[in-house]
Amino acid sequence: MQKTIAIIGAGLIGRSWAMVYARIGHEVALYDAFPEALDKSMLLLDDNLADLEANGLIDGASAVRSRIHRADTLEAALEGASWVQENALERLEVKRDLFTRMDAIAPPATIIASSTSAIPCHEITDGMAGAARMLVAHPANPPYLLPIVELSGADTTSAETLAGARTFLENAGMAVISINKPVKGFVLNRLQVALLTEAFKLIEDGVVSGADLDKTLKHGLGLRWSFMGPMETIDLNAPGGIRDYLERFGPAFEEIAREQTEFRPWTSEKYARLEQDRRTVMPASGLAERTTWRDRRLMALTRHKMDAAKEIGE
Amino acid sequence: MQKTIAIIGAGLIGRSWAMVYARIGHEVALYDAFPEALDKSMLLLDDNLADLEANGLIDGASAVRSRIHRADTLEAALEGASWVQENALERLEVKRDLFTRMDAIAPPATIIASSTSAIPCHEITDGMAGAARMLVAHPANPPYLLPIVELSGADTTSAETLAGARTFLENAGMAVISINKPVKGFVLNRLQVALLTEAFKLIEDGVVSGADLDKTLKHGLGLRWSFMGPMETIDLNAPGGIRDYLERFGPAFEEIAREQTEFRPWTSEKYARLEQDRRTVMPASGLAERTTWRDRRLMALTRHKMDAAKEIGE
Question: Which of chain A's residues have a Cβ under 8 Å away from the Cβ of B189?
Answer without folding.
Answer: 252-253, 256
